[in-house]
Design brief:
2 domains, 45% helix
Length: 167
C-alpha cells in the first residue's frame, strides 16, 4: 500500500504566471489571475494531442511529500528524473528497531516475516547482552565488545530485508 502524506506545493502561482510569458510584451510577477489558471489548464490539455512543449511551465512547480511504499516501488521510482529524493528511511541503520509488523505489504510470504523477526530478535538480544556488559564494567575497560556473531546476524538481517521489507 502506498501512502502520500505531508504534501506541500511551491511556486504554482509563479509558474502559472510565467506560462504566459511567450505572449507577453512585458514581464514581471503579479498576483495570479483567472486567465492564468485557464491558460494553465489549456496548456496541459494541449499535451494530450502530442505537443509536449506546452506543459513546460509545470517544471517550475515543486511538490514535496512523504511517500511510504514497497521496496520494489522505490527501486522502480529511482529510475525516473521527475522524482528527487531528499532522504529515505535507513534500513542499514535502523532495521533492528522497526516495527516489522508495519513494514510488510500483503505480498510478503509469512514464512519470510517469521525469519526476519527471528533474525532481528537474535540481533537485539545480543545487543542487549552487550549493553549489560557495558553496565557491569568500567567505561575505560579494554574489553573488545565487537562480536563476530553480532556482525554476522546483522548482515543476514540486512540481506533478508532486500527481498521483502517495505521501507
Amino acid at each position: 500500500m502506498e501512502i502520500v502524506s505531508n504534501v506541500k506545493i511551491y511556486d504554482l502561482e509563479e509558474s502559472l504566471i510565467a506560462s504566459g510569458y511567450p505572449m507577453r510584451t512585458q514581464s514581471g510577477m503579479r498576483e495570479v489571475e483567472e486567465k492564468d489558471i485557464k491558460r494553465g489548464i489549456n496548456l496541459v490539455k494541449a499535451t494530450k494531442n502530442g505537443n509536449t512543449a506546452h506543459h513546460q511551465f509545470l517544471t517550475g512547480i515543486r511538490v514535496n511529500f512523504d511517500l511510504t511504499c514497497s521496496n520494489k516501488m522505490w527501486v522502480e521510482a529511482e529510475r525516473y528524473r521527475f522524482l528527487e529524493f531528499v532522504s529515505s528511511q535507513s534500513t542499514m541503520h535502523r532495521i533492528t528497531k522497526f516495527d516489522l509488523d508495519k513494514c510488510y505489504n500483503e505480498y510478503v510470504d509469512p514464512r519470510m516475516i517469521k525469519i526476519m523477526k527471528q533474525k532481528v530478535a537474535e540481533y537485539n538480544k545480543i545487543q542487549e547482552e552487550i549493553e549489560n556488559v557495558f553496565i557491569d564494567i568500567e567505561k575505560t575497560s579494554t574489553v573488545d565488545l565487537t562480536s563476530p556473531v553480532t556482525k554476522e546476524i546483522y548482515i543476514q538481517t540486512l540481506q533478508q530485508k532486500k527481498a521483502f521489507l517495505q521501507h
